[in-house]
Amino acid sequence: MTHFSHEEISKLEHLYKINLINSCSGFKSANLIGTKSGDGIENVAIFRSVTHVGSEPPLLGVFMRPTTVARNTYDNIKETGFYTLNHVHESIVSEAHHTSAKYDKQISEFDVTSLKSEYKPGIHVPFVATAPVQMHMEFVEEYNIKANGTILIIGKIKALFIQDNLLESDGFVNLSKGNVATINGLDGYAIPKLKERHAYQRPKTTINTQ
Amino acid sequence: MTHFSHEEISKLEHLYKINLINSCSGFKSANLIGTKSGDGIENVAIFRSVTHVGSEPPLLGVFMRPTTVARNTYDNIKETGFYTLNHVHESIVSEAHHTSAKYDKQISEFDVTSLKSEYKPGIHVPFVATAPVQMHMEFVEEYNIKANGTILIIGKIKALFIQDNLLESDGFVNLSKGNVATINGLDGYAIPKLKERHAYQRPKTTINTQ
User: Fold this and answer.
1) Distance of alpha carbon B19 from alpha carbon A168, whole angstroms
2) pLDDT tens column, A112-141
3) What's the gap between Cα A147 and its chain centre?
4) Chain B: closest CA distance from residue A71 (Å)
C-alpha cells in the first residue's frame, strides 16, 4: 500500500493534496443547493458534504467554507432562512459540476448553465427542475468548526419531493432507480446501481470466537 | 412526484420514517471505524456519515448518536484519542453491515464477524485488514448538535494507507478501482463504477442569459 504520514500530506503540492484528501473519505453525495438573496437573485451550487444527522426530527448537515464559491449560498441561507437540496441526475452532471466555477460578480448559475429553476406553491426558494429528489430546507443552527474555519449548517426538512418510481413500500428511496450521481473526490462522478439491501442486524446467537 | 410535508414526516411509522429520511440525502460513504478501549477490547462499527471537512489540515467529520451501537466507538475515541477509518470493500459488505447489530454486552465485532483486525507499527488502534483505504485518525474536537443530541467528531488524518492501484498521478484516489461500497439509506449497498472526471471549472467567457 502507498503510505502518507501527516507530515508528508502537509508538504504535498496543493492540487495533489486536495485531490488526495477529498477522495480518501469515500463516496460522497451530490447535491445542488438552491437559494435566493434578499433582493431576489437566484443561486445554485454543488455540494459534496450533505450528510444525514437525524430522522426525528428530519435533519441534514452540510459543511461550507465561507471564503469560497459557497459564500453566496451561505449568505442567502442566513438572510432568508431557507434553501433547497436537489439530487444530481446523470443528465445534469456536467452542468451541476460547472456551478463550482468562481465568478467575479454575483451571477445566477441558472443563467450560465442549462439548469432550470422551479418554484413550488408557497415556497420562495428555487428548486432545480427535474431533480429526482428535491427538499425544501429550513435553517436550524450553525457551528463554527474551530479546526479549520468551516461552518456546519444544520437544516430541517420542511418538505420532501420524490420521483414516484424511486419510493419503495417501506419508505426506502431507491436512488439508483433515479440515476442519481455520487462523487469521488472533487471531480469524479459515478451513477451507482444498487446491488443489495441487507436485513436489520440482530446479534448472532452463537458467538464464533475462533 | 410524491410529496411529504414536515408534519406528514413526523407522523410516519418509525421504520418507514427512518428508511425515508436516511435514504433521501443521497449516496453515503461506507466506513468501518476501528477503536480499542483503555482495557484493550477492540471494537469495529460501520458508519455512514464520514464527511470531508478540509484538506489543510486534513480533517474528516462523523456524526454519532451516543445512545446507540456507536456508544463503544465514541467512548473509546474519547478514552484513547485515536481511531481508524477503513473503507468497505465489496467482499466484506455483509460482515461490515453486521457490525450495526446491538449486542447486550461489550463484545468485539472482530470476534463475531469474519472481519480481521490489523496492526501497523507504532499505531495502537486496529485497522480492518484488506480494506483498500485505511486511515489512522486523531480526535481533534467534538460538537454537541443541539437540534437532536448527536455528536459531531472532527478528526485529523495522522496516516493514510491506499492500495497502490487506486492512487492516480494527480493524487486522485480512484475508489471504484478498489470496489469500494457506497450506502443508500440504512441497508442498501452499491459498488459504483467511475463514469467520468470533470475539469476544474472556470467561468464561461460568454454568459448565456437567454
Assistant:
1) 10
2) 999 999 999 999 999 999 999 999 999 999
3) 22
4) 16
How far apart, in Å, are the Cα atoms of B155 and each of A162, B50, B59, B83, B139?
Answer: 34, 10, 6, 9, 5
> What are the residues whose beta carbons fall under 8 Å from the beta carbon of A30, sequence distance 6 or more?
A46, A48, A87, A88, A93, A96, A180, A181, A182, A183, A189, B26, B27
Q: Do A20 and B172 touch (CB under 8 A)?
A: yes
Measured between CA atoms, how close is B75 to chain A, in angstroms?
19
Domains and CATH numbers, chain B: 26-190 (2.30.110.10)
| Interface mutation target, options B55, B82, B141, B194, chain A, most CBs of A under 10 Å | B55
Cβ separation of B147 and A141 shorter than 8 Å? yes
Which residues, in sequence order, are CB contacts of B32 under 8 Å at separation 6+? B44, B45, B46, B47, B85, B86, B87, B88, B96, B99, B115, B128, B131
pLDDT digits (tens, 9 = 90+) for A81-103: 999 999 999 999 999 999 988 87
Using the beta-carbon criterion (under 8 Å), do A204 and B53 form an inter-chain contact? no
Q: What is the mean pLDDT of each run of 10 residues along chain B (210 residues)?
A: 97 97 97 96 96 97 78 93 98 94 81 95 97 98 96 98 97 97 97 92 65
Task: Kindly report the nearest CA distance between residue A79 and chain B, in angstroms.
Answer: 20
| Phi, then psi, of B142 in degrees rounded to 5 | -135, 155
Note whether B121 contacts A: Cβ–Cβ < 8 A.
no
* DSSP element (H, E) containing B70: helix B70-80
Inter-chain residue contact A17 with B56, CB threshold 8 Å: yes
Beta-bridge partner residues of A184: A188
Contact A31 B28 (CB under 8 A): no
Q: How many CB atoms lie within 10 A of CB A181?
A: 28
Taking CB atoms and an 8 Å limit, are B52 and A50 in contact across chains?
no
Cell numbers for B37: 478501549
Nearest CA in chain A to B89: A26
Nearest chain A alpha carbon to B1: A163
Model pTM score? 0.95
A75, A83 in Cβ contact below 8 A?
A: no
The Cα A63–Cα A70 span in angstroms is 10
Q: Which three cell numbers stand for residue A181?
A: 450521481
Contact: B190, A189; criterion CB under 8 Å:
no
Nearest by CB: A111 against B58, B164, B207: B207
| C-alpha triplet B130, B134, B138: angle, nearest 5° | 145
